[in-house]
């Protein structure tokens, strides 16, 4: 065909968000004074856009397949890209490049024009191209992202019609899409079982996808059966395979089976990851198997996994929950010796556990340590400690706790003040309390004193006292 010379062909390839942007000099030649209304200006722009579109299509029919492919790829409007593709297709002896087909198919799919994409795929099948398997990976993903598992499954079978051998990544991608829907678990399993018939062998990831899905669906027996099949089919499980089942057994409170899996894992040379250990430690503690949990914690470092804050805090919480706060203190010391510094959760859990057992002096000591490390106790912990000291007659200690928390800017809860004020009013001999609350008692606090006034006065007194001591220092 005779090709007319193209003006500025090198500038033909550009993203088109508004076709009129191709002809900015045209618009620049107009003055806004030539348009009487905004509507006329918009109408003129629309007319120019149509003219530009026609001109672009005419020029598109004259350029090479490489230019057409770039032009299609640059379009933000997939329908305009399809129209350019069709116009070029109608030119005598014109053949689109593989890249043009590939780009347009994905552009239509990602914009939700599925019928146009499918129609183009049907036409593509008749072309003599070596098709990249990645095209179908992306089509499957497009349908998955659109929430169309049925169409994604059809896309997988479409691979066979193109005489392409599916790869494990195709199988895994379609499995990941199907298992997100409970009613597609059975089709996913059926596809998995028949995969070898289509020339694709499931790999470790394939098994993991299905095992996780069935564990979350409370079908632990199916997941465990799949795990056992791996060795029979020469598929080697990985750390994730074991972790999925350990979590599944722990979720069903079958902790002994989970421990067996961990032992099997270690015997085969695998190093369990931190999540596998934390899952098992948590379940052992909840089953009150604290001895086993602590032994497992001690074995972790030997087996190549250093315990972290989550592991230690899980054991601290387990001991405190079962009324064994002294054992929890030992775990805290283990943390330090192993280079893992306790955090806010560690201290709060331990101080709360000590208070629950009536070990208020020890709790006060650890609370002081909290402040030294820059942590602040929760007001509920302060309340437990103040109330505990008050209940055993250690009122000076209770006041000392209040001084400490106020010094560090922690506001006691209203219940804490309510715990203190009646006891202040009941004291007959102020000297028996030392000098801690002398100034407050001079205010003639009585049992019927308003809580807000008394609490504010007590707080103000303690703050002033603390400030006075700091000045002296």
TrEMBL record:
Q: Which Gene3D superfamilies match?
A: Tetratricopeptide repeat domain
GO MF terms here are: mRNA binding
Report each PPR repeat as a residue range. Answer: 132-166, 203-237, 238-272, 273-307, 308-342, 343-377, 378-412
Region ranges (Disordered): 41-60
Tell me which Pfam families the record gives: PPR, PPR_1, PPR_2
Keyword annotations for this protein? Repeat
Q: Where is the composition biased (Basic and acidic residues)?
A: 41-58
Record-linked PANTHER family: PENTACOTRIPEPTIDE-REPEAT REGION OF PRORP DOMAIN-CONTAINING PROTEIN, PENTATRICOPEPTIDE REPEAT-CONTAINING PROTEIN 1, MITOCHONDRIAL
The protein's matches in NCBIfam families, at most eight in alphabetical order, are given as: PPR (TIGR00756)
The Swiss-Prot or TrEMBL record describes its family as follows: Belongs to the PPR family. P subfamily.
Q: Identify this protein by name.
A: Uncharacterized protein
Which gene is annotated as encoding this protein in its UniProt record? LOC113740675
